[in-house]
Amino acid sequence: MSRPRSARVTMAEVARRSGVSPMTVSYCYNQPDRVAADTRRRVLEVAAELGYPGPDPTARSLRRSHTGAIGVVLGEQLAYAFEDPQARRFLTGVAEVCRERGVGLNLIPTTGAPDDVTRVRSAAVDGFIVWTTVDADPVVDAVTRLGKPVAVHGGPAVGGARTVTIDNRASARDLAAHTFPGARRPAVLSFPFDRARESRLIVGPDPDAVAFPVTRDRLLGVYDHCRASGRDVRSLPVAVAARNDRDEAAAVTEALLDAHAPDAVIAMSDQLAFAVLDACRRKGFRVPGDITVAGWDDDPEAERAGLTTVTQSLSDQGRSCALLALGERAPGHEHDWSVTVRASTGPRG
């Protein structure tokens, strides 16, 4: 009588038909060097005849408390991982380590929904990477309580996790030193302040009200330079973009230029800086003659655009995060950065 298709052949049945113990069958798949060649060949022949696919990898992982995968908590919709240039470069570094170590990669989107913590806790991974998030994100607290390695990219810095970032405050201070000299009406095009991701114009916002550590530190660095130069930060216009997206930032960029007529703009990414350059072209503004512009990341297009920018390697930071999530040693808190000066902050006039 043939076996029903829905009935799964067990290891015990393969062992009985082969005349060996279930442990020997397990060794044939998991530790073949512990089994005589003839025995292993007989067991595998019986397994093939019965349609036995081998031990359940999920059950084996649970027994060993090891899944062979790391999880990346995005803090965004899943599409963000493929659309955002910063995220793509970061995940490229993560994926390189996964390939080298032979482990899998689990992308876990979170959006502030009530079930975020439950979904992250249930992820079958050996360690976590948390993409830049807000200070009070409950997911960060949840993953650090699981007893697994945790790396947080960009912040916040919390106990039980390693933070991988650059010195965002110092890099912003240096970038402002190259962008704002000679400017009478400097401005900032910022990342979102919090998870509400509202696009808006603010004058002299309080950095303590900014929930994302990277955004807050970059704003503080700009403030540092302004104060050292005798500027009143309470009059500094800051345009907040809802997303790190060149096209989506167009409207708030136009609003900034129309409302405040800045002659210098620091954007918190190259994508946002490209939105400023696009708006300048539409309005006929000369860069840097009428307005100086700078960004962050040194996107491949930044050199072609002549954009002054903070150069950092998000791929290297992704590698560090992946190694830390696997429990290996890697460069910790601060990675290297530099300001690459190009034509967009050249002489005015």
Overview of this protein structure:
This protein is α/β, with parallel strands linked by helices and 349 residues long. The chain folds into three domains: 11-55, 434 Repressor (Amino-terminal Domain), CATH 1.10.260; 69-164, Response regulator (Rossmann fold); 168-311, Response regulator (Rossmann fold, 3-Layer(aba) Sandwich), CATH 3.40.50. The chain has 14 helices and twelve strands. It has helices at 11-18, 22-30, 37-50, 57-64, 80-83, 85-101, 116-121, 138-144, 168-179, 213-228, 250-260, 270-283, 300-305, 314-325, and strands at residues 69-73, 104-108, 127-130, 150-153, 162-164, 186-190, 200-203, 237-240, 264-267, 292-297, 308-311, 338-340. The strands form two sheets. Strands 7-8-6-9-10-11-12 form a seven-stranded mixed beta sheet, with helices on both faces. Strands 2-1-3-4-5 form a five-stranded parallel beta sheet, with helices on both faces. The longest helix has 17 residues, at 85-101. The radius of gyration is 26 Å and the shape is elongated. The model is unreliable at 1-6 (pLDDT under 50).
Number of helices: 14
Strand order of the largest sheet: 7-8-6-9-10-11-12
Rg result? 26 Å
Fourth-tier CATH superfamily name of the largest domain: Response regulator
Any idea what the CATH architecture of the largest domain is?
Answer: 3-Layer(aba) Sandwich
CATH class wording of the largest domain: Alpha Beta
CATH topology (fold) name of the largest domain: Rossmann fold
Low-confidence stretches: 1-6
Summarize the main sheet: 7 strands, mixed
| SS-derived structural category | alpha/beta
Number of domains: 3
Number of strands: 12
* Element pattern in H and E: HHHHEHHEHEHEEHEEHEHEHEHEHE
Helix content: 40-55%
Mean pLDDT score: 92
Overall shape: it is elongated
End-to-end Cα distance, whole Å, is 91 Å
The fraction of residues assigned to DSSP E strands is 5-15%
